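Limitations
The structure tokens in this dataset are predictions for the assembled complex, not deposited experimental models. Users should treat interface geometry with appropriate caution, especially where small molecules or nucleic acid strands are included. An illustrative entry is reproduced here so readers can see what is and is not provided.
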Amino acid sequence: DAGVIQSPRHEVTEMGQEVTLRCKPISGHDYLFWYRQTMMRGLELLIYFNNNVPIDDSGMPEDRFSAKMPNASFSTLKIQPSEPRDSAVYFCASSSTGGTTDTQYFGPGTRLTVL
Amino acid sequence: AQSVTQPDIHITVSEGASLELRCNYSYGATPYLFWYVQSPGQGLQLLLKYFSGDTLVQGIKGFEAEFKRSQSSFNLRKPSVHWSDAAEYFCAVGAHNFNKFYFGSGTKLNVKP
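Predicted assembly:
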């Protein structure tokens, strides 16, 4: 298995632009998670999906952030408009059955820089 | 509220020396505890996890961790560190009924030759 795939690996954009991050979970995994990692706040859960349905988006920082999962093999995290404080590494993770006891497999992350 | 504290931001050890990374948690019930490792430019990889039972947990790459309820700790150990262990290590606590993990701020491990 190729593991969790994220694209792009690096993104540099200017303030005010729209940014779309992409994630392909491990095949057969029913849960997908989006995390953000910053120096100031560490690793934070933004949102997670179960069977393509958003379950908890309480970690999404504000309305500029949105996430979708149109099918079991693809999810996007969109920031519109982007701001410099959105600069961070964004990770996608997936797990097979969900629940705290299940192992989450992380992708390599997308490093976003907003100028 | 749930929280995880990793008091050491950076640690440097010599190759072959023993290692202990500290983790303290705050949680209202019996926690689910995890250690992850993040190599440069990579995502997080699970090293080990504790749910119940034996308080000494064995993980991959020769790591182990011990759950001490009285100290609210879950320290990670390795008897002999290899240069390839240089990475950042994250402790996390999981909520029982939710798919949420609370991560510590991480400890960066440097290994001297």
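Some entries come with short summary sentences. For this one: Chain A has a mean pLDDT of 93.
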